[in-house]
């Protein structure tokens, strides 16, 4: 979205009595409602083209082979709260069908994973969902009760809000990829433990390295901590230029935060507009290169 469009959008919403910058009274439209009347892109039209991967790519070997039957001792030894992979470099980009088959393989591994104790209480692992060629990967924290039951990330109340947020910038969950830092539900929806994150994060890294999106959208502090090693307030991270293995990262609050504090939804809107502008500018650059 060009700056003028963004100003026009702001003005349009102001005429509706909504101040996007404060977030007061801002509500995201429901994906089942008719498209919102904004001067932005038509939500019915997918605004971003999927990646066109290069023609030839060798099959990529597993980057993070799971250990055979890790013991609880091994779990403790390997535990480390912060991942320092933000500076690494991405492996060769795979073709679409290779990406899909690698993701399916990893999903199978996650469903059989017994590295931490969460496997004892999960109904199923919740790996991730969406387009293997997605321009953006949204990264949450971990499955809740609804996700544990359905086997899909962000299908509960926070997920419904995420769907609306996506819709507000012309995206659907089928056009993006959605994953969590940890793949199994912590009992009682408690926060993931550092050792659980340490033992699970290789799945997320693999998802990101396989998909190689143009942008990563971190939903909340666990995504930021895991990918960026950032342990400060999310509010402070929102305008920092993070990148993970060369992929731009947008830091944003978790949708559950907006459920608790609806007056802050303007922040989600701002972050989504940043994402939209970023993807558009990358698309333009790609267009110029031919
Ligand atoms: N919260 C998350 O972080 N992830 C989900 O999948 C659902 C809720």
The low-confidence parts are: 9-25, 34-84
Element-by-element helix/strand order: HHHHEEHHEHEHHEEHH
List the total number of helices.
11
Strand content: 5-15%
| Strands side by side in the biggest sheet | 1-3-2-4-6-5
The coarse silhouette is globular
Biggest sheet overview: 6 strands, mixed
What would you call the structural class?
Answer: alpha/beta
List how many beta strands DSSP finds. Answer: 6
Helix percent band: 40-55%
Q: Which small-molecule species are bound to the chains here?
A: uracil
Question: Residue-averaged pLDDT, rounded?
Answer: 80
Task: Kindly describe this structure.
Helix content is 41%, strand content 9%. With 290 residues, it is of the alpha/beta class. Strands 1-3-2-4-6-5 form a 6-stranded mixed beta sheet, with helices on both faces. Strand 5 (242-244) and strand 6 (247-252) form a beta hairpin. It is globular. Residues 140-144, 147, 153-154, 156, 158-159, 180 line the site of uracil.
Question: What is this structure's SSE topology?
Answer:
Blueprint: H1 3-15, H2 72-78, H3 96-112, H4 118-121, E1 128-130, E2 136-140, H5 145-150, H6 157-168, E3 177-180, H7 194-211, E4 215-219, H8 221-228, H9 234-237, E5 242-244, E6 247-252, H10 255-260, H11 265-289
Parallel strand pairs: 2-3, 2-4, 4-6
Antiparallel strand pairs: 1-3, 5-6
The structure holds uracil.
Uracil (URA) binds near residues 141, 142, 147 and 159.
Précis, in short:
With 290 residues, this protein is of the alpha/beta class. Helices cover 41% and strands 9% of the residues. Strand 5 and strand 6 (247-252) form a beta hairpin.
